[in-house]
């Protein structure tokens, strides 16, 4: 059944959606059916939604990672020993053997970049559907053609072994191993598709690693425009993206390289941070995920809605940028003594204004009045007008900027170019 379900999902997943009205009607119908099922099978959601009818799903109380993880035993729709599952997942991370399951369910952890680790539990059927869906959205060719796919991952998954066939071969590159060892293996492996974090793709570009690929897909980390430009110039092709998290597969690129929200499998409501500039936090309701439901779940990332419809003609909304995590918003003191949250995008723009020679950067707030900046290459004459304008526009006390030596090596830790540490 495994391969059949994967194939069925692959062919059922539309390459392009033409009618937004039909999409919205499908979402409504799917959500109502899904809510009824989850309410029946999860003790947590029975209580969580007790004051709401199924029709009111758009107004259900919002969830977050902390709530989900603290109630996970009752949250699930299946009878599973959560403590045993956690121990199994921790053991797998230490041994690097991710084949073990619990009662047929696969278990894994998120990277924990937001400070709290999430755990995801999926059934065999959910894995099979995910495989078919992601191949439909990211393969860039027929499922019956031959594909050699390289995956740079922090943790392998038996999902990929299940999808593998005579035509589709997966090659796992463990990011816990040294980069020079991984590059040597990469060059020796005949790949046509490479799926890797942008930090790895940037490392390959910076070190002029020559490999011929039909398709490159950035995943697991935020792909900034600076990195995208360098990677595309080196490889001579569009860098496609999977934008995903522990909570689901949120967006994938069209043939033009623009990220479209995966609205045929989830509803994404917008919690506006700056509506004029199109910046929002997504509230996700996934209507295909059953074991560990994601309904009215507040994501921690900040997205920028595309201002114009994508030229590809897809009716799915597209986002022009993923600008960082909500908890990476800088927290700076105003002249009045109050504190102001500053979105990562504004810090990024001010950083890049310092010089048009900047090829790479990291900016980290380490205290309420101190920010560390690393730039590559080393630049003597920097234009600070972008930062000065930012401080003035928000009436902030100018923090101290410490310029440090640039250093970064891709690893099992997610790359975040703008982050707050305190």
What does this protein look like?
32% of the residues lie in helices and 26% in strands. It has 422 residues and is α/β, with parallel strands linked by helices. The mean pLDDT is 87. The strands form 4 sheets. Strands 3, 4, 5, 6, 7, 8, 9, 10, 11, 12, 13 and 14 form a 12-stranded mixed beta sheet that branches. The protein has a 4-stranded mixed beta sheet with strand order 19-18-17-20, covered by helices on one side. A two-stranded antiparallel ribbon has the order 1-2. It has helices at residues 2-12, 20-41, 43-48, 65-70, 72-75, 82-95, 124-138, 158-163, 179-188, 198-206, 225-235, 344-353, 385-393, and strands at 106-109, 119-122, 147-153, 168-174, 193-196, 215-218, 239-245, 248-253, 259-261, 266-274, 279-286, 297-298, 301-305, 318-325, 330-333, 339-342, 360-367, 370-376, 400-404, 418-420. Strand 6 (215-218), helix 11 and strand 7 (239-245) form a beta-alpha-beta unit. The longest helix is centred in the first third of the chain and has 22 residues, at 20-41. It is built from 13 helices and 20 strands.
DSSP helix count? 13
The count of DSSP E runs of length 2 or more, i.e. the number of strands, is 20
Uncertain ranges:
none
* Outline: globular
In quaternary terms, these chains amount to: single chain
CA radius of gyration is 22 Å
């Amino acid at each position: 059944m495994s391969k059949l379900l994967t194939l069925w999902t692959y062919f059922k997943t539309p390459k392009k959606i033409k009618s937004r009205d039909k999409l919205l009607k499908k979402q409504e119908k799917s959500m109502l059916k899904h809510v009824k099922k989850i309410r029946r099978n999860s003790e947590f959601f029975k209580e969580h939604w007790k004051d709401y009818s199924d029709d009111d799903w758009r107004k259900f109380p919002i969830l977050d990672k902390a709530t989900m993880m603290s109630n996970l035993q009752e949250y699930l729709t299946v009878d599973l020993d959560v403590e045993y599952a956690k121990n199994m997942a921790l053991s797998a991370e230490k041994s690097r053997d991710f084949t073990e399951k619990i009662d047929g369910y696969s278990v894994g952890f998120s990277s924990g970049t937001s400070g709290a680790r999430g755990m995801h539990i999926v059934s065999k059927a959910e894995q099979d559907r995910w495989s078919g869906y992601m191949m439909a959205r990211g393969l860039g060719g027929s499922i019956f053609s031959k594909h050699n796919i390289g995956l740079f991952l922090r943790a392998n998954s038996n999902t990929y072994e299940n999808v593998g066939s005579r035509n589709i071969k997966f090659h796992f590159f463990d990011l816990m191993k040294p980069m020079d060892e991984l590059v040597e293996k990469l060059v020796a492996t005949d790949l046509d598709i490479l799926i890797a974090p942008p930090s790895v793709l940037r490392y390959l570009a910076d070190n002029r690693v020559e490999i011929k690929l039909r398709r490159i897909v950035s995943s697991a980390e935020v792909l900034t425009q600076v990195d995208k430009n360098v990677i595309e110039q080196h490889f001579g092709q569009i860098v496609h993206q999977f934008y995903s998290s522990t909570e689901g597969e949120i967006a994938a690129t069209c043939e033009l390289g623009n990220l479209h929200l995966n609205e045929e499998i989830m509803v994404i409501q917008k919690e506006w941070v700056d509506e004029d500039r199109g910046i929002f936090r997504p509230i996700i309701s996934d209507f295909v995920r059953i074991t560990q439901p994601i309904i009215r779940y507040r994501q921690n990332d900040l997205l920028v809605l595309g201002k114009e419809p994508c030229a590809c003609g897809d009716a799915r909304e597209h986002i022009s940028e993923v600008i960082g995590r909500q908890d990476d918003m800088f927290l700076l003191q105003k002249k009045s003594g109050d504190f102001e949250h500053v979105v990562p995008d504004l810090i990024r723009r001010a950083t890049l204004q310092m010089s048009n020679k900047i090829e790479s950067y990291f900016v980290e707030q380490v205290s309420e009045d101190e920010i560390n900046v690393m730039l590559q290459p080393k630049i003597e004459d920097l234009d600070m007008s972008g930062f000065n304008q930012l401080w003035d526009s928000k009436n902030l006390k100018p923090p101290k900027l410490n310029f440090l030596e640039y250093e970064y090596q891709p690893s099992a830790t997610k790359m975040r170019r703008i982050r707050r540490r305190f």
